[in-house]
Amino acid sequence: MKVPLLDLKAQFAAIEPQVRAAIDRVLASQQFIMGPEVAALEREVAAYCGARHAVAVSSGTDAILCVLMCLDIGPDDEVIIPPFTFFSTAGCVARLGARPVFVDIEPRTFNMDPGKLEAAITPRTKAIMPVHLFGQCADMDAICGVADRRGIPVIEDAAQAVGATYKGRPAGTLGRVACFSFFPSKNLGAYGDAGMIVTDDAELAERLAVCRLHGSKPKYHHHFIGANFRLDALQAAILRAKLPHLERWHEARRRNAARYDELLAAPCGGVESPCGSAVTTPYIAPYNRPPAGGRSIYNQYVIRSPDRDGLQKHLTECGIGTEIYYPISLHLQKCFAYLVHREGDFPESERAQHEVLAIPIYPELTDEQITYVARCICEYPA
């Protein structure tokens, strides 16, 4: 059986008429940059997230960069982030001349460990940017509690978490401002790059909207130096066609995750597995139990194994797609050598980089496919 990590063709087949109608609408208008499609998407995403304002931008990376620019973060400033995440979280900080300051992760959630946050704050700290990794929110009460006591703004890197909730509150409304990505592999994915910034701060939202247009309002009148972070209308129209399906897709991913939880529960204890083979290696799915009132959207379903590379090779031979998110923690990346970190500085992040493996979780998976994936995992002779 072949089980790809992600099957966007199956998703497109189910919504093709709506997507083609959206594209045709833009082609008929011949308005391709910003315009009414983008404005409508902003209203709809703001409503979905429960936020007062949304500002559409060209990618999730540009969302982070635009926010940092509008908070006047630059040389000699510090921004606290986790080291186990996608590159842009740190890359955008460094691009502005600021210093990424890392705080290690919790082993069960892969999100920033709030217990280590206070020690990382210095007089140069200008923002704290937790990441809601793989679709589950970070411990925002604890993080925001530290930030509020110090008067430091919290930026949510919610690139993988549109629709996730924390104690009943939506991702995007837990800090001062939040950044989403609509990269094609996300639960809500464009057909190219796209992103969104949401906030309840009207003044900040206005500055963000001006920043994405080279800092100009009206056109050719530049109040400050911004950048070209504009979203094109085709991507906005496609995202509008897909947004009404998002909750159904989330719930399908959650059902698939629950089925994996059931099938992979026994191997965690080294007992006879539902797949019929006794194993001793723990395969841990870290998102089984979000905080009360919380909801993971399972942008990824990640297991851990001390023999991750061997397990990945085995699954590849079984025809199962997998991916390693992420094989090198940011503090060990060559481009950040100037930060003078070394192995052992952030042990949980380093352990995760050697153990994590994402397996298929997309909504269109069949129970037969899920059972096959679980069986192949359980049969691996670790």
Distance between the termini: 22 Å
Q: What is the residue-averaged pLDDT?
A: 93
CATH topology of the largest domain: Aspartate Aminotransferase, domain 2
Count of the domains:
2
For the record, the CATH architecture of the largest domain stands as 3-Layer(aba) Sandwich
Q: For this structure, what is the CATH class of the largest domain? A: Alpha Beta
Biggest β-sheet description: 4 strands, mixed
- Class inferred from helices and paired strands: alpha/beta
Radius of gyration: 21 Å
- Classified in CATH, the superfamily of the largest domain is Type I PLP-dependent aspartate aminotransferase-like (Major domain)
Q: Helical proportion?
A: 25-40%
Question: What are the SSEs and their pairings?
Answer:
Elements: H1 8-29, H2 36-49, E1 53-57, H3 60-70, E2 78-81, H4 88-95, E3 99-102, E4 125-128, H5 140-150, E5 155-157, E6 165-166, E7 169-170, E8 177-181, E9 195-199, H6 202-211, H7 233-242, H8 246-268, E10 301-304, H9 308-317, H10 347-355, E11 356-359, H11 367-379
Parallel strand pairs: 2-3, 2-4, 5-8
Antiparallel strand pairs: 1-9, 6-7, 8-9, 10-11
Helix pairs in contact: 1-7, 2-7, 3-4, 3-6, 8-11
Please give a handful of descriptors for the protein shown:
382 residues, alpha/beta, Aspartate Aminotransferase, domain 2, Aspartate Aminotransferase, domain 1, 2 domains, 4-stranded mixed beta sheet, 3-stranded parallel beta sheet, 11 helices, 37% helix, globular
